[in-house]
């Protein structure tokens, strides 16, 4: 097996949930550029169609599909449609996120926490359940859970206090829970040649703009805590996702790749 050929994804089918989001698009493009047919899935169909069109215009294979992770029928319909239409589901990237429950503990409302968890916890579990039966039939598959530095370390609150923003408890809870889910799935499905890993990105340069964050002081603090002194750009997750989706990582499962410019090194 030639080393560089092991990274190729020609003929493979990948579903990316939240594929029209900021990191979702970076991940989709990485998989497309490695040769995969990418299903750009999410609850904002117009945005998924716009992203898929951008990728196809650049010569890649991408299709937009509607997915509402709060509804089991929608999740099952997507998995069934992809398997029937394209013959396999080789990679699932669980990237979609709800931030409805982004609150500090003493402001937390059960209804908003549960609305987030319906997507981030239950939705991720049901999506994985819907594709795993196809991966078992195929005798192979790769599942990649997009966690966060916020699953690896707790929030550095003085930074968020600089502009009164919140890094909520539910987000840290759900992102760290992904590591447990990753290990459980990896251990259960290893014998079926289904690998399950996670990626923990740092902040990206769109989420990291002053318009988005509203405070230069917060940006400066974030960068001062990041040895590489920059936010992630549109290329930084491409290599890691292609590595985990492809045969280049064929003996690797249950692991977490931290891609954060060193933010969590301290
Ligand atoms: N933004 C960052 O700096 C950052 C840092 C570390 C990790 N992450 C992680 O990366 C992933 C993407 O983050 P982002 O900031 O690019 O997100 P984003 O807000 O740009 O996109 C979120 C996506 O999730 C989709 N989504 C939300 N609810 C859904 C539902 N019910 N059904 C289907 N899709 C739904 C949206 O349509 C959207 O495409 C998340 O898992 C996030 O935790 C982001």
From TrEMBL:
Gene3D superfamilies: NAD(P)-binding Rossmann-like Domain (3.40.50.720). It holds the Pfam family adh_short_C2. The keyword Membrane does not apply. Keywords: Oxidoreductase. It comes from the Bacteria. Belongs to the short-chain dehydrogenases/reductases (SDR) family. This is NAD(P)-dependent dehydrogenase (Short-subunit alcohol dehydrogenase family). It comes from Paenibacillus eucommiae. The lineage of its organism: Bacteria, Bacillati, Bacillota, Bacilli, Bacillales.
